[in-house]
Amino acid sequence: MTVVAVICEYNLFHNGHARLLTQIRRQFGEETVILSLMSGHFTQRGLFAATDKYTRAHAALLGGSDLTLELPMPYCCGVAEQFALGAVQLLDALSVVDVLAFGSECGDVERLSAIAQNRRSDSYQAALTKALAEAPADESYLKTANRVYDMLFGPAPLGANDTLAVEYLCALQRINSTITPYTCKREGRETATQARRIFQKEGPAGLTEMVPAAVLPVFEKAERSLPQLAQSAVLWRLRTADPVALASLADFNIDLAHLLVKQAEQANSLSDFYDRCVSKKYTRARIRRCSLYAMLDITKNDFAMRPSYTLLLSANARGRALLRTVKKCSRIPVYTKGAKAQTPLNGRADALYTLSLEGAKSSGAILRKNPVLLFDDE
């Protein structure tokens, strides 16, 4: 039996995700157990997830996953390097994963591995450090990093999924993991961004052509997260923040801290705030992430620590069998109840997320949810 892990957000689960899971079974056999390590209520680009983590994990189960565990805060909302490293460290700690599978535009794991090795080389790291110190004020980190890479190793154009794949490979190399990487060439036109946009504007009725038929009923019963419902809390936090204190948080600098406070004072909505802050230097994703870090007081030290637990979100019979094995050999605990996995950071995150839900919810509503378990006759 091969255990194949997928690091994911499933925000929202769509036909492209289902194709990846189908291809994994085709490649490794029908008895393969697919473990999805999924982001919780906030995602790598600083977004509020379109619906709660248990609903998204239920969709994953009906779409082909066997076991869904949570990639907890803060790793789920870190920059690509932090997101990938935290996820890979957690998977490695479970001690059961044989393969890490991911989609990519190029579909060539050897090419991506070579790029990862180049990015981890001493020559690249030294050149990048120097370039960042000398970079123009309006040049983003990613643009500087790509410029340095092209200078040293030649152009290596990468799609968005390729870029994240390289970070997974860097993380595997960095911790000397025995997990084997495997990539599938990304196909289809569906994107999670499109699915979210439709779901938030039209509800589940607009998703018919984008999600597997078995998954659609889950979204028909789901409660949407609408970030504009939480915008007053976000803007109030930033309007009243001390820029010096903000500058000590993850991914901040003093210039960005002053920018966020100033624009929050003038913005009349969350989307208006993001529009005011975005520039050549600061991407929308970074603005969203840093706004989230400000709300939740996420520091650099939070990312410096390895993941210390994970939470069960969903499982079928095959997934529950794997879970029993995980609990025997994992180096970190796997909780089945949200209350046992509650940390101060998770508490703040859940309290913020519940403010964005359509229906009125207490901040402890998420803790009362149970993992989604499917049996053979369901």
Descriptive notes:
With 378 residues, the protein is of the alpha/beta class. The protein has 17 helices and 8 strands. It has helices at residues 15-28, 53-63, 80-94, 109-120, 122-134, 141-153, 160-174, 192-202, 216-220, 231-239, 243-246, 254-266, 270-277, 284-296, 300-304, 317-329, 344-355, and strands spanning 3-8, 33-39, 67-71, 99-104, 180-185, 310-315, 334-335, 372-373. Strands 1, 2, 3, 4, 5, 6, 7 and 8 form an 8-stranded mixed β-sheet that branches. Strand 1 (3-8), helix 1 and strand 2 (33-39) form a beta-alpha-beta unit. Helix 4 crosses helix 7 (160-174), helix 5 (122-134) crosses helix 6 (141-153) and helix 10 (231-239) packs across helix 12. It is globular. The chain starts with a strand and ends in a 5-residue tail after the last strand.
